[in-house]
């Protein structure tokens, strides 16, 4: 199942994607859930499929006509990986980590597909990072390699926009990774059953103004989704609606000569095979 969150006249809504069309679940059932995190914490995805099965043609919209929201509006935790593709480690240059390199993002740092990413007044070193995000569907602790993927409900695209100078002010990356409206998430939630296990083997690409700047494959992660879930849940309980953001390939702006920073007027796209296309314009902070 593919799901989008979007703006209705009466507030947020959820829709099931069928090709170029979206079934408006609230139009089918006025009591339908309106936020995917609540669905994952409550009735589950099958409840949405049941509602969608009753849809008429009048309750469908063109996907291109909708103003989209982030697939999960209220994730409890946003756990991100750094240095998770070996070529990206080499362009750092960094030492290859022995364990997943984890940091956190907050909700105020993210926008939906189609919304503007904001380059702040305090820095010009605004970098793109194309990433896959796993969306958690079940509470999980002490996962094993055998059962880790059971807790993943689906996947989406992510741009881990980073202010590189602030990221490097200290050994901790939090500041550079959490500027307001510096990253994006979406546009479509793709159920795990529609993708290869762990979303491995998928082409991942970033484009700036149509120019390919990152291109790799999710099979080349140093720590794949299974390994990362096992490691994280040794100490952290994952809960429905949490996000696990899986790191970026090589080709980032700071490693280029000269560096390539995102600036006002640019359009940045993250595309992952079978997952979707996340697109955002860049504006300067007012």
Kindly give the count of domains: 2
Sheet/helix structural class = mainly beta
The largest sheet, given as strand count, sense and whether it forms a barrel, is: 12 strands, mixed
Strand content: 25-35%
Count the beta strands: 19
Write the H/E string, N to C: EEEHHHEEEHEEEEEEEHEEEHEEE
Radius of gyration from the alpha-carbon trace, in angstroms = 18 Å
Quaternary arrangement of the chains shown? single chain
Query: What is the mean pLDDT?
Result: 97
CATH hierarchy, class of the largest domain? Alpha Beta
Q: What's the helical proportion of residues?
A: 10-25%
Query: Are there runs of 5+ residues with pLDDT below 50, and where?
Result: none
- CATH architecture verdict of the largest domain: Alpha-Beta Complex
User: Which word captures the global form?
Assistant: globular
At the fold tier of CATH, the topology name of the largest domain is: Fumarylacetoacetate hydrolase, domain 2
CATH superfamily of the largest domain: Fumarylacetoacetase-like, C-terminal domain
- N-to-C CA distance: 39 Å
Helix count from the secondary structure assignment = 6
């Amino acid at each position: 199942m593919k799901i989008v969150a979007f703006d209705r006249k009466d507030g947020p809504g959820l829709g099931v994607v069928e090709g170029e069309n979206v079934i408006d679940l609230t139009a089918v059932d006025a009591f339908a859930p309106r936020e995917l995190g609540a669905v994952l914490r409550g009735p589950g995805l099958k409840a949405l499929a049941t509602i969608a099965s009753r849809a008429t043609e009048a309750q469908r919209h063109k996907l291109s006509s909708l103003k989209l929201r982030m697939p999960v509006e209220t994730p409890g935790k946003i756990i991100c990986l750094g240095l998770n593709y070996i070529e990206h480690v080499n362009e750092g240059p960094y030492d290859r980590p022995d364990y997943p390199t984890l940091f956190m993002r907050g909700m105020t740092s993210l926008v939906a597909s189609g919304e503007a990413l904001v380059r702040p007044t305090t820095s010009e070193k605004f970098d793109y990072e194309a990433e896959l995000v796993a969306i958690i569907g079940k509470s999980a602790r002490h996962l094993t390699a055998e059962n880790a993927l059971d807790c993943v409900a689906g996947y989406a695209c992510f741009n881990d926009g980073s202010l590189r100078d602030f990221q490097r002010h200290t050994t901790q990356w939090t500041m550079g990774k959490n500027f307001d409206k510096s990253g994006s998430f979406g546009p479509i939630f793709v159920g795990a059953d529609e993708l290869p296990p762990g979303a491995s083997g998928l082409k991942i690409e970033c484009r700036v103004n149509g120019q390919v700047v990152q291109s790799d494959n999710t099979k080349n992660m140093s720590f794949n989704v299974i390994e990362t879930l096992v490691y994280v849940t040794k100490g952290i309980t994952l809960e429905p609606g949490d996000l696990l953001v899986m790191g970026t390939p090589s080709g980032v702006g700071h490693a280029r000569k000269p560096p390539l920073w995102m600036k006002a007027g640019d359009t940045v796209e993250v595309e992952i095979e079978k997952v979707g296309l996340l697109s955002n314009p860049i504006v300067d902070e007012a």
